[in-house]
Design a protein that fits this description.
Number of domains of chain B: 3
CATH topology of the largest domain in chain A: Rossmann fold
Oligomer: heterodimer
Shape of chain B: elongated
Distance between the termini of chain B: 91 Å
CATH class of the largest domain in chain A: Alpha Beta
Largest sheet of chain A: 5 strands, parallel
Number of helices of chain B: 9
Number of strands of chain B: 8
CATH architecture of the largest domain in chain A: 3-Layer(aba) Sandwich
Radius of gyration of chain A: 22 Å
Radius of gyration of chain B: 29 Å
């Protein structure tokens, strides 16, 4: 009840400059240290799902000449689908580097027809522009001409392309990953956090001695992961970043060295804070909402490209405002939605009436 | 016994015939409190519901705005029904007296006012328009910002507030652009000289609408053209996802459409004011 009241208060009454999420973060130094120790992992269960779906689709007699669409998880910084496409040995078509940048049509047309073509990041084809739409129409015409093709795009891009070029008719029945429930999420996080054989990592809820990833029958632990799954919409990369945001380090990065029998082993102790829910206030400036929607649609953009995609000529304050917000991050010049902010942004955009990705 | 009964009946008859209660019997404090309570409810709903409508989810905006006149009507009726027995001695006979007097007063002095009030009540229940709708009444086009019982306030795109009595409902056609929906159709016009490739222009203008950030994906985009003596008239018909963006949406399509036409080297048609008026 308290959570509901807090959510409604934040939605209706929060000011634009209110820090909606409690800022209990550790110092910058320790956060960087955390990032060094914990890199976002690929989600192996999803890669397995993808393998299975691709095999089933290829086994269908009528698969040739059709396109399999894969709705890729948003904000996946581990690029699971891209890595899967590259690792599979198929012909992988990269997105153009700019709005009018070239596409390797020759490679696509001259490759042997038995080769599977994969277009892993269709959302990055500058789709909400006349040039982008032209190119995607041409691409879909080539892909649909008697060969196997798999295209990947996020749900926002799918919803847009279903309107703009009727991609839902070209590639009906897109494949979507199963959302992860609390139990599956706990199993996956346990796997990825114990991948280092030298370090024994323990995660404990603040104020409790319960070891989160070991004692998974504990009702408190189950509730924690059920909440994490709900708030992350069951998207592994989002859940992983939300999980990462809850981690706190005790003492000197929580790293202690101990010995267990004959083997010397490092022990890392992390404290897990309660999950904070990020909320996009109802009063959030409209031009920033358009920018967030554009970033969701394109998966990430350079500042200049984002400005070109805005409905009106944006003021000079737009990009700095985005950089300074808790919703966007800039990596190598590309502005992207912060994974842990994705559910809040999606809900906020939906509340404001923006078209969102719904399959 | 009979005399006493007759006296009692006479008193009762006299009481019933008395329209107003004795002034010293009327609880002015109670009446004041009821009126203040009604005013407070109306004032709170007028402030709080539009405030929440502007800040909350856009899907709930029209419902919240539409609730304001309903709350006002209920509060006023409840207050009147509560106060009347405190002031008047309500019997069938008195009711007929009051109704007769009121009819005369209304017939002579407040005909238009009451006509607007009745139209206001009809508007609340039949909902030909409601708060948040974009309507055209006479020459005035704008968003209904406030629905009173007697009239409504329309805010025009030029930021003028126009007060329109509900009685216009009896005599005029009222054009409602969205009729309670979250969106409305927007039209961007282009007037071109005849010598061009119509299919190319139509497809290009279609993409102009499809690439607008304001576009509502769930509604159709249509480009229609008609041949005129002065050239070709193109119209992009599309819907923004939020009707408050209608003018920005039209401007966005117009700016980018003109850029496209310039890039294709298509000339605009010259339409003289006289032809345009026809």
């Amino acid at each position: 009840m308290q959570a509901l009241v807090a959510k409604l208060k934040a939605m209706f009454l929060a000011r634009n400059n209110t820090d909606v999420i409690a800022n209990e973060r550790a110092s910058l130094e320790s956060l960087q240290r955390l990032d060094e120790m914990i890199q976002e992992p690929e989600c192996e269960p999803q890669v397995g799902e993808l393998d299975e779906a691709a095999e089933q689709w290829l086994a269908r007699p009528a698969a040739r000449g059709t396109v399999l669409a894969v709705i890729t998880p948003p904000c996946d910084q581990s690029d699971s689908f891209l890595n899967w496409a590259r690792g599979s040995g198929h012909l992988c078509i990269a997105p153009p580097v700019s709005r009018s940048g070239p596409v390797d049509w020759a490679r696509l047309k001259t490759s042997t027809s038995d080769k599977i073509v994969i277009v892993p990041q269709l959302e990055q084809w500058f789709l909400r522009s006349a040039e982008g739409l032209d190119r995607i129409r041409k691409l879909m015409a080539v892909l649909g001409s008697a060969r196997h093709a798999i295209v990947g795009c996020n749900s926002f891009a799918w919803a847009y392309l279903a309107k703009a070029i009727r991609i839902d008719l070209i590639a009906p029945g897109p494949f979507t990953f199963k959302p992860m429930d609390g139990e599956r999420l706990a199993t996956w996080l346990a796997q990825v956090s114990q991948s280092d054989p030298v370090t024994e990592t323990t995660f404990r809820l603040i104020g409790s001695e319960t070891a989160l990833l070991r004692d998974r029958t504990n009702p408190g632990v189950q509730k924690f992961f059920a909440t994490l799954a709900g708030r992350s919409l069951g998207i592994p990369s989002v859940a992983w970043h939300m999980w990462r945001e809850t981690l706190r380090i005790d003492g000197a990065y929580g790293m202690t060295t101990g010995s267990q029998g004959a083997h010397s082993q490092q022990r890392a102790n992390y404290w897990v804070a309660s999950l904070e829910e990020l909320i996009l206030p109802g009063t959030y400036p409209r031009e920033l909402l358009f920018a967030l929607h554009t970033l969701c649609l394109h998966g990430g953009m350079r500042g200049a490209d984002l400005a070109d995609n805005m409905p009106e000529t944006p003021g000079a304050a737009l990009i700095p405002a985005l950089r300074g917000s808790q919703f966007v991050q800039e990596v190598e010049g590309i502005l992207r939605i912060r994974p842990e902010a994705y559910p809040a942004i999606r809900n906020g955009l939906r509340s404001s009436g923006f078209p969102i990705g719904a399959i | 016994m009979t005399a006493a009964a007759n006296t009692g009946a006479g008193q009762a008859e006299a009481e019933a015939a008395k329209l107003l209660r004795d002034l010293q019997d009327i609880s002015y404090l109670e009446i004041g409190l009821i009126a203040a309570l009604a005013w407070l409810i109306i004032y709170a709903s007028r402030k709080a519901l539009p405030f929440l409508a502007e800040r909350g989810p856009s899907q709930t905006r029209l419902y919240l705005l539409g609730a304001v006149p309903m709350v006002r009507l209920i509060a006023i009726i409840a207050a009147i029904l509560w106060i009347l027995p405190l002031v008047f001695n309500i019997t069938m006979q008195n009711f007929l007296v009051i109704a007769g007097a009121a009819s005369v007063a209304i017939g002579f002095a407040f005909k238009d006012y009451v006509s607007s009030l009745i139209a206001g009540v009809v508007a609340i229940f039949e909902r030909p328009y409601r708060s948040g709708d974009w309507v055209k009444i006479g020459d005035d086009y704008g968003e209904i910002r406030q629905m009173g019982l007697r009239g409504m306030t329309i805010q025009t795109p030029d930021d003028n507030a126009v007060v329109v009595p509900h009685s216009r409902l009896w005599t005029e056609n009222i054009s409602n652009s969205n009729d309670g929906a979250q969106t409305l159709q927007c039209v961007a016009d282009f007037y071109l000289a005849s010598s061009h490739d119509s299919a190319q222009i139509r497809d290009g203008l279609n993409d102009i609408a499809l690439t607008s950030p304001y576009l509502d994906y769930s509604r159709p985009v249509v480009v229609v053209l008609s041949e005129q003596p002065w050239g070709t008239h193109y119209k992009i018909r599309a819907y923004p996802f939020d009707m408050r963006d209608q003018f920005l949406f039209i401007s966005d399509m117009t700016v980018r459409g003109k850029r496209l036409l310039a890039a294709l080297g298509v000339q605009s048609a010259f339409v003289s004011p006289a032809v345009e008026r026809q």
